[in-house]
Amino acid sequence: MTSPLRDRARQMLKDAGLYCTEPRLAILQVLMQAARPLRQDQIGEKLTLRALNKVTVYRTLESLIEVGLVHRAFTYRRAGYFELADHCTEHQCHPHFTCTQCGVTHCLTDILLPLAKIAQKGFVINRQQVRLEGLCPACA
Fold this sequence. Notes:
Blueprint: H1 4-16, H2 22-33, E1 38-39, H3 40-46, H4 54-66, E2 70-76, E3 79-84, E4 96-99, E5 105-107, E6 131-134
């Protein structure tokens, strides 16, 4: 039996030119259901396919990043956070807000920020990512 979520993941992989493997489908479904960016270990914990080890999850994430379905939203305390790339453009990711008290990160998809411009010659910006820190409404 198939679900709308699984069908969407299957279509995303097909559109990206990737084979529909169980690890890819499972990881995409986890990220589609996530309300915020997840670390690799958090993705692994949510997988129903318990046979997936850390290396398989890492390699699968890398293959999804290569085709632009997933991206590293940011790195915090040496851990990469991953999410679907559907709210981002090729050159800019939507901003993220991390609460310094509870540690929860929120996606700010409704905020539009202009692309940075560097006055000094020689710099070329390939991608802009913004992460804001402070207190969330629950902690403030």
